[in-house]
């Protein structure tokens, strides 16, 4: 259940006077999402999603909300934040930073088809192209220096073989540089639960709160690692190949990207292996953490290390 | 028929590569609109309206398109222009300035109900409030100096009684100043054919190509003069009153606006009387003009001059 902060009709009605959205009709808590409180808000003008941010601060929001607005303006399917009469996308409600975004149709898909993977790949490439004119910058808080630092704290707590694998992979990644690859705005968390689909049609990418500026290929690797992964942790070659076909139909990979692709798939697996290990061994006190199994990404990393075919055709 | 410029599938497919909208599926000319060429464009991502501007130049478009984008971002129902990969809302297609906007549902209404008038009034007020943070400026090209200048050319061609009425009204308006009233972005042409409705729900205001910065109350007068006018040119008191109720539910008129309201209704009637006389007596050569009856606005002006009740309650 994701309603951590309760919003009263009265306080919402008052807050909505700062918007051009008409009168409040209905307010319904949404039982999904892990970190934030979400409501469906229906007004005389339409239906919106209200998010109250439980951990992000008001001053941290402009990058994410301006990015979503920029992408929506370019026709990339994602929720469009609504600005208030002071031209702000967010302000305090019930003591929390809060925003309204347009309500999308569709639902997330647990077992995507190859065609759905193609559509996600294509839209990811369009997002990368549309992000090229986005003026704000955000460093990736979960890049190589973060995983090295976090690994130092994890080594003493991990079984010997896991610690050895983690140490070896970090050394391997340290020996590779990606600075020469195309960079830009990345979603950085484009897992299956962050895409709303309507059949093969992308209703929208959602949950941009890990978005940042980094290597575009890294974003592709994060997404392929999830969209083409089977329940047993193995990769579905067909879905992976078709995801990449969809991506390359909009943005063909450069030669330098093709050569870095095998390393990048491992980097993307490493990043989520480390964060899940961190959630397991060092849960942030008071943070609403829903621990997911780190083993999935350990196995994926091991499989990538053995892999010969990387689906690039 | 409004397709003055033909767009081929091939040239549109090429042009669409500059957008994040997927592949072209269908292209259909729209048989509505007087000044511009419009097409429905369906891509793998959705449905859009393509406009090719037959008279406006590329450099004149940013005010209008950025305004529509600003209003859409604030939740005011109107078509949202789509930006291309160079972050432009318009560029040349088939030799004409062209843009894509989101496709709205709904249709224009010939005989609006009182509740529809209320909804239009309310949305107009919301548009005025949302326009307060719009940074661009455009002077009204059809203000008092335009109608005085145009009237000078019309006097010799008009019947005696019409020339006398026109001269008298312009003198009357010259004796009144509105500089102390709230100003901002106005639509300036919010007639029944420029609002798409879905029952009592406003799908969108359209055709912002007369929008400019001027007195807000003038915009209200232009709209009331059309939305509450009956076929015989008389005003429907109920529709006028309810339009104003809807407007004031979002932006109550100030005392100074209430006192200027009767003069403003006459100014708004004068403006369209003059432009229709101009279309009739001096049709711009080569311009695609669809002449409308000036007499409607002459009679409306005469009625306003006799009126005692101005529906403000």
Automatic annotation (TrEMBL), chains A, B:
Known EC number = 2.7.1.39
Q: What's in the keyword line of the UniProt record?
A: Amino-acid biosynthesis, ATP-binding, Kinase, Nucleotide-binding, Threonine biosynthesis, Transferase
Molecular function (GO) terms for this protein are:
ATP binding; homoserine kinase activity
Pathway listed for it?
Amino-acid biosynthesis; L-threonine biosynthesis; L-threonine from L-aspartate: step 4/5
Give the family this protein belongs to, as stated in its UniProt record. Belongs to the pseudomonas-type ThrB family.
Please name one Pfam family that this protein belongs to.
Answer: APH
Which protein, by its recorded name, is this?
Homoserine kinase
> Could you say which enzyme class this protein belongs to?
transferase
InterPro entries, A to Z: Aminoglycoside_PTrfase (IPR002575), Homoserine_kinase_II (IPR005280), Kinase-like_dom_sf (IPR011009), Pseudomonas-type_ThrB (IPR050249)
Q: What is the lineage of its organism?
A: Bacteria, Pseudomonadati, Pseudomonadota, Betaproteobacteria, Neisseriales
Q: Which organism is it from?
A: Chromobacterium phragmitis
